[in-house]
Amino acid sequence: MAEGTRSKAESAKSIKIRELNELADQIGIRPDDRPTFVLAKFEEWEKCEREKEKIDREREKEAHAFRMKEKEVESEKLKANDESRTTNAADQNSLNCQTPFFNLEPFDETKKSIETFSERFQNVATNNQLPIGKWSFRVSQALRGKAYEVYAKLPSSSQNDYSRTHY
């Protein structure tokens, strides 16, 4: 036990013994029985103090374990978010080797309707197994003129969602 802690504990014991002697006087304990009374009450008090300390240590141990578990869960969440962001960025920003490549004729509104172009694109994309998440990007590459202007005015969330961009 540290020196400061020991002196505080000794001081608390001295105070408690003084209080118990005063209590013995107040309740009329005979001088012959006083040492036995004070000793018995002091031992009860020490036992209670040890129990309190034990409970405090257990609470602190549980609180520490809880804080460590919280940190672990937070760390796992951050790791999962980082992995998710990395995966999403890779999926959205790159045409990798697994993304099929196919030529797509630019859309010319003077030669065909947007409906015909859209139907043709869907057939080509499906036959080439292009993931639907990449459809909107590929369509945007083929748009020209007014069709591209309309597409460009869409919010970015709609530009990336084929179900909102096809006609």
Record the SSE blueprint.
Blueprint (H helix, E strand, L loop, with lengths): L2 H25 L6 H60 L20 H14 L7 H8 L2 H9 L2 H4 L2 H4 L2
Helix pairs in contact: 1-2
Quick overview:
By secondary structure, the chain is an all-alpha fold. The chain contains 7 helices and no strands.
Plain-language structure description:
There is one protein chain. The protein is an all-alpha fold and 167 residues long. The protein contains seven helices and no strands. It has helices at 3-27, 34-93, 114-127, 135-142, 145-153, 156-159, 162-165. Helix 1 crosses helix 2 (34-93). The protein starts with a helix and ends with a helix. Residues 51-85 have a biased composition (Basic and acidic residues). This is Zinc finger protein.
- Topology order in helix (H) and strand (E) letters: HHHHHHH
Shape: rod-shaped
Radius of gyration: 40 Å
Question: How many separate helices?
Answer: 7
Low-confidence stretches: none
Number of strands: 0
Portion of residues within helices: over 70%
Mean pLDDT across all amino acids: 83
Q: Tell me the major beta sheet.
A: none
Terminal CA distance reads 80 Å
Percent strand:
under 5%
Structural class computed from helices and strand pairing: mainly alpha
